[in-house]
Write a structure and sequence with these properties.
4 helices, elongated, transmembrane helix, transmembrane, GtrA_DPMS_TM, GtrA family protein
Amino acid sequence: MFKKKSIFTFLQAQVAAFLGGITDYGLMILLTEVFKLHFTFSILISGTVGAIINFSINRFWVFKNQSDYSSHINSQLFKFALVVLGSISLKSSGTLIFQKFFQIDYRIGRLITDLFVSYGFNYPLIKYWVFRVNKKPDVIESN
């Protein structure tokens, strides 16, 4: 059975992903349609901007995992950057595959790809690796 806190955390993470994602998607279209960059390059740039927004919201609101230790944030940033690199690679490749092999418009292919990448790749890694909280084991007192 799911705990209420887990469901709430999942929903908060979806809000963070949505805000980062809508920024990412809008910027991708702007860079592709107005500035005429190939969509794979637009995804690289827009994905980076969206990731910064997503990281900030996840760190300070969703997982509230913001210790004052600079090594802790450096570790989180490094892990998050690896997730973002994987995510951007998957999104670019998936969008390209939908466009080249299935003749699906890159905007639609990107939305389809995002669904799989967000739920199957980003969320699990962000929750269980980037912002994982190491809980101290309960100490059992003996008499």
